[in-house]
Write a structure and sequence with these properties.
The chain has 480 residues and is of the alpha/beta class. The chain is built from 18 helices and 15 strands. A seven-stranded parallel sheet has the order 3-2-1-4-5-8-9, with helices on both faces. Helix 6 crosses helix 7 and helix 10 packs across helix 11. The longest helix is centred in the C-terminal third of the chain and has 28 residues. The two termini are 23 Å apart. InterPro entries: UDP-glycosyltransf_plant, UDP_glucos_trans, UDP_glycos_trans_CS.
Length: 480
């Protein structure tokens, strides 16, 4: 009987993408029967699981399959910080039923859950299945989250009201305002969920992290040595990254065709991810800033749709008058989805203006492209801070995290120049990005740090599969 793994990712495209790649990597030698449980996307306007994910699995020839869970009604306001945690928790009965059915045909060695799915530990405990965390973010956030329950007890005020920096093992002292958005309001239900997720991390059988030692050695050491938890042993840590989805370059895509006409490393690429719609006022400032920077640019930005389904008309209305004509030849504005990794891999790209979602950070560094950090939400502020201050492969925009508001054109132009120009700072971040590129690729090769972590994880899971099988036999024979 084969050893089974059940994986429950968050119902978001970026999380699903890294989950599918992780499943392919852990099952490279077809030692497992992997089942990826998928939930219906709960957010307004969300699309079903793309065919590309199914095609990726089918073409791999690996024993991996998708299992759609029955639909659960979304729990109220999707803008609530607690929304996704409550939504995932509502699937507990369906996850339990699915694992029970699987146990009749495979030895289920583990249930692997996402950051917001720790409530499923109760299901794993009930069924005697060890639960692992697949942490799709970086080790800096993991170190912070392991520390959060203690910070919650030690600090009575709101974090955003603190005047002094907060000490986090492996990170040093960090500004309170770069903490993840769910931590900014202790009265909000989402804060309680965030703390509870953090508490449950310590009970996992293992922490699988989408990072690599050479990128985040300080945070990984702090977590692995138990310095982030003073009152509980830390589970084993497996940094298996970078786990990336690398698209094949389509030479006929208009953005790729345009990049083919540009000089090497001359273009700054601006993209804010799948959730990165911008208000019209901000789009106008971005356009003016790119124009004033004097550098070539590819700007993939969207505004909330008002007129046509593609968003093209809305974007054209948001751009400054005469902008397209003034920047013709050195700039391209694209209003729809773009093949981000294919663009980052292009030789014409010299810098990336990013919201600093973790997948985007890893993709950019995989290709040696330095980052201009423009965080928008979630843990992105922490990512930008770490890449700029600790890693040295990013430049940070000077953002008002307390007041918010529109980032003006002058600041955009200033940031692009710092990233792209051939001065000491520009050279430094470009060199560092190339160093990280080499280290990340070495990490996943045979004998690399992440390859070794994956091997250790595989051995542990196979061992648990054998133990689970024997325990089930004992129970069926009433042996104690």
């Amino acid at each position: 009987m084969k050893v089974g793994l059940v994986i429950l990712p968050m119902p978001a495209r970026s999380h699903l993408a890294s989950t599918v790649e992780f499943a392919k990597r852990i099952n490279k030698h077809n030692r497992f029967a992997v089942t990826i449980l998928t939930m219906a996307p709960p957010f307004p306007g969300s699309t079903p699981l793309p065919d590309s994910f199914h095609d990726s699995i089918s073409s791999s020839g690996l024993d991996i399959r998708f299992q759609d869970l029955p639909r659960v009604d979304p729990p109220g306001d999707p803008s609530s910080e607690a929304f996704i945690s409550v939504y995932i928790a509502g699937h507990a009965g369906h996850v339990r039923d699915t694992i029970r059915r699987l146990q009749s045909s495979v030895r289920v060695a583990a249930l692997v859950v996402d950051l917001f799915g720790t409530s499923m530990m109760d299901v794993g405990d009930e069924l005697g299945v060890p639960t692992y965390l697949f942490f799709t973010c970086g080790a800096a956030l993991l170190a912070l989250m392991l520390r959060i329950p203690a910070l919650d007890s030690e600090i009575e005020s709101e974090f955003e009201d603190l005047e002094e920096d907060v000490e986090v093992p492996g990170l040093g002292r960090i500004p309170p305002l770069i903490m993840p958005s769910p931590m900014m309001n202790k009265k909000d239900e989402g804060y309680g969920w965030f703390v509870e997720h953090s508490r449950r991390f310590r009970r996992m059988k293992g922490l699988i992290v989408n990072t690599f030692r050479e990128l985040e050695w300080s945070a990984l050491d702090a977590v692995g040595e138990g310095r982030c938890l003073s009152d509980h042993p830390t589970p084993p840590v497996f940094p298996v990254g970078p786990v990336l989805v690398l698209e094949e370059k389509d030479p006929s895509h208009p953005c790729i065709e345009w990049l083919d006409t540009q000089p090497s490393r001359s273009v700054v690429f601006l993209c804010f991810g799948t959730m990165g719609d911008m208000p019209e006022a901000q789009v106008k400032e971005i356009a003016l800033g790119l124009e004033r920077s004097g550098h070539r640019f590819l700007c993939a930005v969207r505004v909330p749709h008002r007129s046509d389904q593609s968003g093209t008309a809305d974007l054209e209305e948001a751009l400054p008058e005469g902008f397209a004509e003034r920047t013709k030849g050195r700039g391209l504005v694209w209003p729809r989805w773009v093949p981000q990794t294919a663009i980052l891999s292009h030789g014409a790209i010299g810098g990336f203006v990013s919201h600093c979602g973790w997948n985007s950070c890893l993709e950019s560094l995989w290709f040696g492209v330095p980052i201009l950090a423009w965080p928008l939400d979630a843990e992105q502020r922490l990512n930008g801070f770490e890449l700029g201050n600790k890693v040295g492969a990013a430049v940070e925009l000077r953002l008002d995290y307390r007041g918010g508001g529109i980032v003006d054109a002058a600041e955009v132009a200033w940031g692009v120049r710092r990233l792209m120009e051939d001065d000491e700072e520009g050279k430094r971040v470009r060199e560092k990005a190339m160093e990280v590129r080499a280290a990340g690729r070495a990490a996943v090769e045979d004998g690399g740090s992440s390859s070794d972590a994956l091997r250790r994880l595989t051995e542990q899971l196979l061992a648990y599969g054998g133990e689970t099988f024997m325990e089930n036999i004992k129970q069926s024979l009433h042996i104690t």
